[in-house]
Amino acid sequence: MSAAQNKAIKQAEPQSRGDKRRAAFIAAARQVFLEQGYEAASMSEIVLRAGGSLSTLYSQFGDKQGLFISMLDARVRQITESMGVELSAHTPVEEGLRRIGEQFTSKLLEPESLEMYRLIVGLARKFPEIPREFQRRGPDKIRQALADYLVDREEAGEIRLEDPYRTASLFLEMTRSGLVSRALLDEEVRPNAEEIRTSVNIVVDMFLHGIIRYQPDPANTKTVKA
Fold it and tell me: Are residues 93 and 151 in the same domain?
């Protein structure tokens, strides 16, 4: 069974009442945290928007920080899902990296993702445990998902790796550094799909093939006499 079929079956499975309530809490929390910030966000306001009760909210997430982290987890799953698809399909490395790069960059460039990142950076001084947990459950998990795909491609004989995790980190940083950094600093920067595709293609070509042309060794070059 293909990865696409497995995904379709999973999506078709009915959610329990608890799962639906949890999803509603996370969706409402995302709105409230982005509108009001972490400190000002009210758990009562989240319940008002999502429905349910405060007791149910606290029983599912523990406290505000637990809810915030769960919200981040849901976002990370959306990003790592595409990498899992390429891994299970054993997609050839160049094709897979292009698709992963485009989906990864597109997700990071969504207004909600940009606002969330700004919010997390702003929490670093007063609530350092939240960015640390985000790093562990977000970027670290995304790097590992890509590393797993790269190892699969190494086992297929397509590439050679010395450190899969660091190699994955390098690719992701190259992919996001230009467009995402600009968009974080300037709200008017909104790259379209073609700009994202062009940027990712440059990264993939450089990542797989390098930028230095092969220069023959002069010692091995025979002099041709006239």
Answer: yes
How far is it, in rounded angstroms, from Cα 176 to Cα 59? 37
**Cβ-contact 203, 171 below 8 angstroms:** yes
Assigned token pair, 16: 């329990």
Residue 3 lies in a domain: no
- Residues 199 and 178: beta-carbon distance below 8 Å: yes
- Single pTM value for the model: 0.80
Per DSSP, which regions of the chain are E strands? none
Same domain, 136 and 45: no
Does 9 map to a domain?
A: no
Mean pLDDT by 10 residues, the chain (226 residues): 44 70 94 94 95 93 93 85 86 94 93 91 92 90 93 96 95 91 91 95 94 69 50
Residues 91 and 193 in one domain: yes
The DSSP secondary-structure symbol of 219 reads G
Beta-carbon neighbour count of residue 88 at 10 Å? 16
Tokens of 156: 């297929």
Comparing CA positions, the residue from 68, 81, 144, 69 lying closest to residue 107 is: 81
Q: How big is the chain by its Cα radius of gyration, in Å?
A: 22
Q: Which of 98, 70, 85 is nearest to 8 (CA)?
A: 85
